[in-house]
Sequence to fold (1058 residues):
Amino acid sequence: MVVPARSRMVILKEGAKGQVELDPLTQKVYLTIEPPRLGFNQADTDRLRDALRQAGAGTVAVPLALMGRMADVCREKDWAVTATVGQGEAGPRLVALEPGDTRDRHFGLAVDVGTTTVVAYLVDMNTGETTGTAAGYNGQAPLGEDILTRIYLAATAEGLTRMQEAVVDTLNGLIERLVNRCGISPDEIGAVVVGANSTMVHLLLGLNPKLICREPYTPVVNNPGFLKAGEIGLKINPRAVLYCLPGVGSYVGGDVIAGVLVSGMHRAKEISFLVDIGTNGEMVLGSEDWLVACAGAAGPALEGGVARSGMRAGPGAVEWVRIDPGTRKVSYRTIGDEKPRGICGSGLIDCLAEFLLTGIIDRAGCFRDGRTSFTIVPAAESAAGEDIVVSQLDINNFMRTKGAVNAALETLMESVGVSPADLSRFYAAGAFGMYLDLESSITIGLYPDLPREKMIRLGNSSGEGARQVLLSNGKRLEVEEIARSITYFELNANQEFMNRFVSSKFLPHTNLDYFPTVKAKLAERGLLG
Amino acid sequence: MVVPARSRMVILKEGAKGQVELDPLTQKVYLTIEPPRLGFNQADTDRLRDALRQAGAGTVAVPLALMGRMADVCREKDWAVTATVGQGEAGPRLVALEPGDTRDRHFGLAVDVGTTTVVAYLVDMNTGETTGTAAGYNGQAPLGEDILTRIYLAATAEGLTRMQEAVVDTLNGLIERLVNRCGISPDEIGAVVVGANSTMVHLLLGLNPKLICREPYTPVVNNPGFLKAGEIGLKINPRAVLYCLPGVGSYVGGDVIAGVLVSGMHRAKEISFLVDIGTNGEMVLGSEDWLVACAGAAGPALEGGVARSGMRAGPGAVEWVRIDPGTRKVSYRTIGDEKPRGICGSGLIDCLAEFLLTGIIDRAGCFRDGRTSFTIVPAAESAAGEDIVVSQLDINNFMRTKGAVNAALETLMESVGVSPADLSRFYAAGAFGMYLDLESSITIGLYPDLPREKMIRLGNSSGEGARQVLLSNGKRLEVEEIARSITYFELNANQEFMNRFVSSKFLPHTNLDYFPTVKAKLAERGLLG
Fold:
């Protein structure tokens, strides 16, 4: 599988908040245990439990599988052993037991399971460093490109199993590459933390997500707690701690909570606004005192395959576009510098912004000259020998997405009595947040028009949040607290939202004063007439 | 499989200490949960967790398998559900979730896994009553008759698996009979408590018992904690709590601890003595202030198949014997009143006592007339058409067993400064304790010579202890406290014990004054010359 060039490019997080204090989800405890003798012939397991208690690891539950190996492992290096202790259902439990001192080898896995792309980070739990990264397409995509199709396909027990196996296979493939590249055994991975949206978490755990998209939109679980890697078939230590970042609702999942964690907005005095645009525009508004969240059904306008010439962000996708205001000549760049095959989300946003700034479309999103499409790449230059275009229909679809995002933000702000002027920080989370051009996104009103130094891309905040939680029980408690404290507004049946959505018909916004820099540009170009 | 007639006979416990206060290892909690709606669309699992917390069940861990059924079960009867909550690794966990109110059906299983016989009790957790009992031979016996052979056979992974499967199959057969007879589904059994010796626990759990019989005699585990029935393949609810009564060493297992619990000796002011005679004579001495235990390698003298005409206590076994002092005519009775096929342990004890009281053998255990065997059943009356005899070799073997028991008790008493006169209660636990004739056992010195009202048979104390723990968390804490507080004397390499063992050559005892009633009988018959 080819990793999109872009995925490799953006591993570094622009918005990450520095180092995490190391207190990983597993700890390795080296023990030199007093060997049994006549008069001190306590059972092996009880002896180990006592030694762990004395070492300060608490009362550690020992699974049957490890009792079975206890006798041999303890005697292999004369009762010097290293115990890996992790979080269990309700207290610490033994994850692994190795002969001798193996504390210098201590690994965990942070995973971002996206609808399109899955990224796995092999993390050295001793240093906090990422030892290796691997990314690949989510194996579910060939079964169902968009998330609603997958939910539909997973409605039967068989379909659910196929969906689960597809993403687990993807993860196992990434794990295999990582352990081979980094020279470790899969069995040395003792903890996995997953950042993903609610539907992805359900499918990964084999839970039917059918109710997620039906009123009143209830997931099976928001916080699955501490599971075991073997329960879902991950090919690592089957007793490894498996933890999925908790969500707060069907449409505000662990990936969004990860964004909040990474941004630090839950610890700031000022009011911040975080948005993660995908199929749903998920957003969180708030500060250290309060957090509100909602998800507008943004629609898949930005996802590959929806726009007429749309494609996902793979090789050959037009990802950057500029249009000369005078000549209307188009400049573009593709991922991997390959022959153009289509336009991905970031390319589409650039097109729309350039259309607006060059007067090709008006503020209502209509082609001023009445045409039905605009050619970005002529047939002669394209890979398939066909024009790559943006159609009026594509623009109309996007207007709905933007309208949903705007309406959601405004409904949210009104519900807590906050005005646009109160926003002191803007965070762009999620996959689109990594790629979308900031100026273009502001120009068309997808992002607010704040001073640019207050606008921060979080990069792969889902993966970064998973990594921080993997490395820190403190961070884990923090995400749980974030999830608990967020007030979730369900917009799917909110009339106020619907009204705003319908009236939100202009680029960048009905009220141009909310976008001063865009207003200035349009005025400068004489496009405000 | 034919259940030995005797097993059916002795289900009622002579020594059981009345009723247990009901606080079973699982509790059933009926919940009417507020259904989800817009504005209150918390996830199903989190909603259930909250409802359980509000119902006082604590923070209950929900296993993945039950999350998978949550959505359907909760909606089947409009959010009225019954949750079965049991003990998990370190806190309560969800064992089952059923639609509607099913509190009137709440079942558990108490199991006595003996080397020879396995007995299963289906218990109504609401009333504490035993709804059904089923017994059968331990399926391991055809693979290896005695326990040392089984330990040997289990040394390889394959052999261990075979041993585990054999006893699990036995249990599953008993379970099938019980659930059919009592009209319940196997899935309704939510907890199992096992009373068994250490080796049986190891084999049941698939743990290699090889180190149990090698110095310094360390089991893999004394207290396995809370496991799940599915982990060992029991065909009941796979998430059912599986708890094995804790032991204190390789030779003082959960079956003996069960005996202590059932006797109540750990709560008595006076000093009691409990003995469980099998392959090993296991014994516990003590009071509410202290408890000491040891096991003498009694040897298999009393087990079926060792004595020349020996057999286990099945149909046709000579189980009761009297000899006329004048004519030396033998009267006997067999199990099931079938034609005699051999002599079981209780029959052998009767023979030896009668031999001593009729002067056939002397106090050193030798035939006074120099013969090498004594015929109990002549060939013409026996099932196989062969004489059923007790040989001098059989007697010599028995002398070693008795010597080991005597030596162990004396070593134990000396170690804590207690004399025979201090013993105020005697408890006979375990299978042999149910069947051996009290007077015969005293006559030959296997049991102490106390006033008879102070001598109590505990019946199947292993099964009864399991039943009490199944029904009461308080009793579970009590057995754990008993196991913790017992001081275990390892006699296998104790020189003092060896000296006593070797010098313990007389019936009933070297010092006849310890057995006043036997001394009187022998004197009366002129056998003290």
